[in-house]
Design brief:
The complex is a heterodimer of chains A (315) and B (281). By secondary structure, chain A is mainly alpha-helical. Chain A has twelve helices and no strands. Chain A has a domain at 83-263: MetI-like fold (Orthogonal Bundle), CATH 1.10.3720.10. Chain A has helices spanning 2-54, 72-79, 83-113, 119-131, 134-145, 151-158, 175-200, 204-212, 217-245, 249-254, 266-276, 280-314. In chain A, helix 3 runs parallel beside helix 7, helix 4 (119-131) packs across helix 7 (175-200) and helix 7 crosses helix 9. The longest helix of chain A is centred in the first third of the chain and has 53 residues, at 2-54. Chain B folds into two domains: 5-57, no CATH class; 68-280, MetI-like (MetI-like fold), CATH 1.10.3720.10. Chain B is built from 13 helices and no strands. Chain B has helices at residues 5-38, 41-44, 59-67, 70-101, 106-120, 123-137, 143-167, 171-179, 184-195, 197-213, 216-221, 230-240, 245-280. In chain B, helix 1 packs across helix 13 (245-280), helix 4 (70-101) packs antiparallel against helix 12 and helix 12 (230-240) packs antiparallel against helix 13. The two termini of chain B are 36 Å apart. Classes of the chains: A mainly alpha (315), B mainly alpha (281).
Chain lengths: 315, 281
């Protein structure tokens, strides 16, 4: 008798628990549904259609008949006059920007991590460039760099570094480099904030122990600080490599990829294919190529992490 | 400590030198922007630019304010920014609640992964297909197109920020409310949201600043000058008033101002939000 009562109670609770769980599940799914629908309609579907369009003859004027053309779009993109240059430019733009941003970011973070007066004010000032819209940053620097009335040109001439004002954004050899400097100026604060948070979480006694061992400030930086910042730095750099490589705004606002395509990167080229030549097939092929580069990059990064953790497991 | 007083002093001095140098580097462009905006045209177009303004004037500001599309652009940006923030907050509150409480379900986990992925999808890649979709739906040249595009990128961001806020709310609080027969929606409105007001404020400001600063979609989707938002509007100023840098800079000052004011207000949250997001990766 007693046993059966216990059994009843058990089956009852087993029954009740699933229904409660099912209800919770329903609510949970209902709550994430809007966000998921947005994802499907605005991220997943467009991504699939980019890849689909890249194999078809499609353009905005409807002269393309939408037929399957295989890899023809890809071949045309790669053979197009400025592809190699845009590809190389994207590499230079990304690597130099990210390297510069990281160096400035870590120096500022180290300085801000010192215990000194006025730290909060300095931190506030250093974050400011990052808040400004890219367009405003681009316009302000364009104005400072103008040859006739630009303040930077006038300073450089006064200091004797230049004989006469130089049209930094209008000359093929300096256009991209100038935009890189502006990009570094606007983006490095993000590194500073992130690295500062990481620096402040390094236990102080490690430093004190190292100081007791007679290791100087420089040695401590290379032996303690850098290794401690490694994982944050890798994430930071990975994110920024992507953000920089795909950036459209800076270059478009300052030079539109000119003069003579000297500062054109792949995103600018996508825009040109799509909005100026109205050739959706070509633009999609280039976009798909960029996507492929990104995925390859991610996979290499993933394999690297895997191999490292594998090694650690083996030890 | 073991270090000598002298080396400590040197270190401190070096720190100040570095910080002052960085501050100058960061602030100078703003300073120059404001100085240019306040200069009359003949001083702007001087071959010897100086910090000193001989005849400071608000003419540039007045000109931009009354004689250009600035005010229209500003209103449009404000509208799109507020609407996009509201919409993404509405959706994110629900999904963030699910993410903070129901991660044990596979579907919820899937949504969280898709959100991380969608944060990594470059906007440039979505530009063309979204342009075509908007064209087919007849949304091109309307604010709806921008609303949709901005919401896509702010939903994941807002969801992650709100999830971390919601996770810190003890679950006992909810259980008590549930005992009283509160529905889930009622629970969110009456218990969760009032507690997380600081989180909601910082999340919505973050979303707003994101929408306010966006350039590419606004530039491509909107052709009608009366619907244009601020950032593309500003970039077109450069073409329209090529040499009138006084006007361009005063328009810049006026469009940065709201963001800077917001920033001063939310600096603490912003720093926390950024670091939480970035360190978690």
């Amino acid at each position: 008798m007693r046993v059966s009562v216990e059994k009843d109670a058990e089956s009852l609770s087993r029954k009740r628990r699933p229904t409660r769980e099912v209800k919770a599940k329903q609510i949970a799914y209902m709550f994430v549904l809007p966000a998921f629908l947005f994802f499907l309609v605005i991220v997943a579907y467009p991504l699939v259609s980019v890849i689909w369009d890249s194999f078809h003859d499609k353009n905005l004027l409807n002269t393309g008949d939408g037929r399957f053309v295989g890899l023809a779009n890809y071949v045309e993109v790669i053979r197009s006059e400025y592809f190699v240059q845009a590809f190389v430019n994207t590499g230079i733009w990304t690597i130099v920007s990210v390297a510069g941003e990281y160096i400035l970011g870590i120096v500022a973070a180290l300085a801000l991590a010192q215990r000194i007066r006025g730290r909060a004010i300095f931190r506030g000032i250093i974050i400011i460039p990052w808040i400004v819209p890219v367009v405003v940053a681009g316009l302000t620097w364009t104005w400072m760099l103008t040859p006739d009335y630009g303040v930077l040109n006038s300073w450089l001439v006064k200091l004797g570094l230049l004989d006469e004002p130089y049209y930094f954004l209008g000359e093929p050899d300096t256009a991209l480099l100038s935009i890189i400097i502006v990009n570094i100026w606007r983006s490095f604060p993000f590194y500073t904030i992130t690295l500062l948070a990481a620096l402040q979480s390094i236990p102080r006694d490690i430093y004190e122990a190292a100081a007791l061992d007679g290791i100087g400030p420089v040695g401590r930086f290379f032996k303690i600080t850098l290794p401690q910042l490694k994982s944050v730095s890798i994430v930071l750099i990975m994110i920024h490599i992507i953000w920089t490589a795909i950036n459209f705004d800076f270059i478009w606002v300052m030079t539109e990829g000119g003069p003579v395509h000297s500062s054109e990167t792949l995103p600018i080229m996508i825009y040109r294919f799509a909005m100026q030549e109205l050739n959706i097939g070509l633009a999609s092929a280039l976009a798909s190529l960029m996507l492929a580069f990104m995925i390859i990059g991610f996979m290499m990064y993933y394999l690297y992490i895997q191999r490292k953790s594998g090694n650690r497991g083996g030890m | 400590m073991v270090e000598s007083k002298r080396s400590k002093l040197v270190q401190k001095l070096l720190t100040y030198v570095v910080l002052v140098a960085f501050s100058l580097f960061c602030l100078f462009p703003f300073l120059w922007m404001v100085i240019t905006a306040l200069k009359p045209t003949d001083e702007v177009r001087s071959t010897r630019p100086s910090f000193f303004i001989e005849n400071p004037t608000f003419d540039n500001f007045l000109h931009v304010f009354w004689n250009t599309g600035f005010l229209t652009y500003f209103k449009n940006s404000l509208f799109v920014g507020v609407a996009a923030t509201a919409l993404s907050l509405l959706i994110s509150v629900l999904s963030a609640y699910a993410l903070s409480r129901f991660m044990r379900f596979r579907g919820v986990k899937l949504v969280s992964v898709t959100m991380i992925l969608s944060q990594m999808v470059p906007p440039v890649l979505l530009l063309i297909p979204l342009y075509i979709i908007m064209m087919q739906l007849g949304f091109l040249n309307t604010h709806i197109s921008l609303l949709v595009a901005y919401t896509t990128f702010t939903i994941p961001l807002c969801t992650f920020m709100l999830t971390s806020f919601f996770s810190s709310i003890p679950i006992e609080l909810e259980e008590a409310a549930e005992m009283d027969g509160c529905s889930k929606i009622g629970l969110i409105c009456r218990v969760i949201l009032p507690i997380s007001i600081p989180g909601l404020v910082s999340t919505s400001l973050f979303a707003f600043v994101n929408a306010w600063n966006e350039f590419m979609f606004g530039y491509v989707f909107i052709n009608d000058d009366s619907l244009r938002t601020l950032t593309p509007g500003l970039s077109l100023f450069k073409g329209l008033y090529t040499t009138d840098w006084g006007s361009i800079m005063s328009a810049s000052v006026m469009s940065v101002l709201p963001v800077v004011i917001l920033f001063l207000y939310l600096q603490k949250y912003l720093v926390e939000g950024v670091t939480a997001g970035a360190v978690k990766g």
